[in-house]
Design goal:
By secondary structure, this protein is of the alpha+beta class. It has three helices and four strands, in the order ββααββα.
């Protein structure tokens, strides 16, 4: 997502750990701990879920029997909708790609649907509350 087209002002902020914890036990501290990026939280909604359900036949993560297959540690958004049909929303973390980048990664909504289903004016990303004039 293009950060210049996103209005994040009304979304909950997620700050880094204080102090930040390194990913590796080989490091005692995070090198850039005084300049960490701020993430924001948003959610899918029923409109998001409807678009995905209507396009499940395009999903590469669904087998012939309609069951999700693929890595269990990182389920696709399609798999989440199938496994948890009672949920009315799913978290999406809006994560900056870098300290000087205008790119935001929407974590939690990865899927295998065609590009036109994801990024058009009526696609999956258009339903996620947090933006004005979304550009990918």
């Amino acid at each position: 997502l293009d950060a210049r087209t996103c209005d994040l002002s009304l979304l909950p902020e997620q700050h880094s750990d204080d102090p930040p914890v390194p990913f590796s036990y080989l490091n005692k501290r995070v090198a850039n701990e005084n300049s960490l990026a701020l993430c924001h939280l948003t959610y899918t909604n029923e409109q998001t879920h409807q678009i995905v359900r209507e396009n499940l036949h395009h999903s590469r993560f669904l087998g012939e029997e309609g069951e999700p297959h693929g890595p269990r540690y990182c389920p696709s958004f399609e798999a989440k909708l199938i496994r948890f049909p009672e949920r009315t929303r799913h978290q999406i973390w809006l994560e900056p790609e870098g300290l000087t980048s205008n790119v935001i990664y929407p974590a939690g909504i990865s899927n295998t649907l065609p590009e036109d289903v994801q990024v058009t004016e009526t696609g999956v990303l258009s339903t996620v509350p947090r933006k004005q004039g979304l550009k990918q």
